[in-house]
């Protein structure tokens, strides 16, 4: 029986039923990168199958959640700054700082200060930027 932390998971999963899968690789919280690697190997083995019955699908769902929990706790993704988000929106829409200033009524100098990180967007500016680009304000207020 492999447990989280076991260095290998067999290339082919032993059984089809939920209990067989649990015997092969127990569903437990992941506490290390080696346990993460073993869990990912088990997911890969399951995904290599042509089909999964309901029990195997439930097992896969729970294992994926355990992986997600570990990765979001141990390997958090840094949130983008308001300047990074704004820069991406400008680039993705192919507009200039001058165009943004004209469409949002935010002066060019303020746009420049925001993009350089010298100034933060205020709520009114966020609402104007979001209206211009058709995005939700949660993009900026998620911190």
List keywords for this structure.
elongated, disordered N terminus, mainly alpha, 143 residues, 2 domains, 57% helix, 7 helices, 434 Repressor (Amino-terminal Domain)
- Characterize the largest beta sheet: strand count, sense, and whether it forms a barrel: none
Please give the number of β-strands. 0
CATH topology of the largest domain: 434 Repressor (Amino-terminal Domain)
CATH homolog superfamily of the largest domain: lambda repressor-like DNA-binding domains
CATH architecture of the largest domain: Orthogonal Bundle
Q: Determine the number of helices (DSSP H or I, runs of at least 4 residues).
A: 7
Average of per-residue pLDDT values: 85
What structural class is derived from the secondary structure elements?
mainly alpha
State the end-to-end distance. 42 Å
Q: How big is the Rg?
A: 23 Å
- Give the count of structural domains: 2
Helical content band: 55-70%
Uncertain runs with pLDDT below 50, 5 residues or more?
1-11
Strand fraction: under 5%
Return the string of H and E elements.
HHHHHHH
Broad CATH class of the largest domain: Mainly Alpha
> Which descriptor suits the 3D outline?
elongated
């Amino acid at each position: 029986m492999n447990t989280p932390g076991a260095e290998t998971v067999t290339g082919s999963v032993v059984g089809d039923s939920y209990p067989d899968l649990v015997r092969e690789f127990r569903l437990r919280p992941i506490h290390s990168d080696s346990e993460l690697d073993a869990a990912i190997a088990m997911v890969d083995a399951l995904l290599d199958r042509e089909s999964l019955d309901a029990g195997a699908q439930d097992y896969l769902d729970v294992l994926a959640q355990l992986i997600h929990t570990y990765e979001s706790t141990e390997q958090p993704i840094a949130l983008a700054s308001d300047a990074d988000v704004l820069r991406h929106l400008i680039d993705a829409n192919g507009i200039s700082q001058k165009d943004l200033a004209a469409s949002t009524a935010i002066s060019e100098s303020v746009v420049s200060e925001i993009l350089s990180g010298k100034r933060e967007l205020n709520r009114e500016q966020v609402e104007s930027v979001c209206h211009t680009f058709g995005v939700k304000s949660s993009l900026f207020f998620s911190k």
